[in-house]
Design a protein that fits this description.
With about 220 residues, the chain is α/β, with parallel strands linked by helices. It has 2 domains: about 1-140, Response regulator (Rossmann fold); about 150-215, Winged helix-like DNA-binding domain superfamily/Winged helix DNA-binding domain (Arc Repressor Mutant, subunit A, Orthogonal Bundle). It is about 50% helix and about 15% strand. The chain contains 11 helices and 5 strands. It has helices at about 10-20, 35-45, 65-75, 90-95, 110-125, 135-140, 150-160, 165-170, 175-190, 195-205, 210-215; strands at about 1-5, 25-35, 50-55, 80-85, 100-105. Strands 2-1-3-4-5 form a 5-stranded parallel sheet, with helices on both faces. α4 links the parallel β4 and β5. It is elongated. Mean pLDDT is about 85; it is low at about 130-135.
Length: about 220
């Protein structure tokens, strides 16, 4: 039996994934969470860890990037499949470089999900047949992915709100000038010129959900 945990903040989508996996022989859903924080809390309380965690990217609280990083910090051997609507180079490479064992779009056929989970369980990795060869090459190139630091990622997340730069600085316990330095660094790395552009980039890549950016 292959034991699965799933975190997805959309109840209908989560139920659909669970019902689909229930059709697969030899699979069991042991943990169901509606966000990354809930998943981490349940994993910490579990007497036995699941074999694979299925993560969405765009979730409130801890998003998929942050949840994956926390999972790998606490349980380095726990395998993770990213199951998301996002399919851009940043999302795929960021998650794989952070330690995900596979990446799959939610519009895939059920057989592909079953194969991905089986490949991860038995081989430790899933390589989707449809993955663009250039994307695989980019994954191994040092400068292929924008080198966004953890603090810059934190700033980017806070930037997708109505907070002023001064208020963001207060939350991050930094000076306003330092926060503006993070902004300018992201402008350069992402070839973006405005805060609105940063928000659009964050939403497009699942760093924040649309509802978070609209609040």
């Amino acid at each position: 039996m292959i034991h699965i945990a799933i975190a997805d903040d959309h109840p209908v989508t989560r139920r659909g994934i669970i019902d689909t996996i229930a059709l697969f022989d030899g699979f069991s859903i042991d943990i169901e969470a509606d966000n990354g924080e809930d998943l981490i809390a349940q994993l910490m309380q579990a007497t036995t860890l699941p074999d694979i965690c299925i993560l969405d990217i765009s979730m409130p609280g801890l998003n998929g990037y942050e949840t994956l990083k926390e999972i790998k910090r606490r349980w380095p051997d726990l395998k993770v499949l990213i199951f998301s609507m996002y399919n851009n180079e940043f999302s795929v490479m960021k998650m794989l470089k952070e330690g995900a064992s596979g990446y799959l779009q939610k519009n895939c056929p059920p057989r592909q999900l079953q194969r991905a989970l089986a490949d991860i369980y038995y081989n430790g990795l899933y390589n989707a047949e449809h993955a663009a060869p250039q994307l695989i090459r980019l994954l191994h190139q040092k400068d292929a992915l924008p080198d966004i630091t953890d603090r810059e990622m934190e700033f980017l997340h806070l930037c997708c709100s109505e907070l002023t730069y001064k208020e963001i600085a207060g939350i991050m316990h930094l000076s306003t000038r330092t926060v503006e330095g993070y902004r300018d660094a992201l402008f350069n790395k992402l070839n973006i010129k405005t805060r609105t552009g940063l928000v659009m980039y964050a939403v497009r890549n699942g760093i924040v959900s649309y509802k978070d950016s609209s609040s």
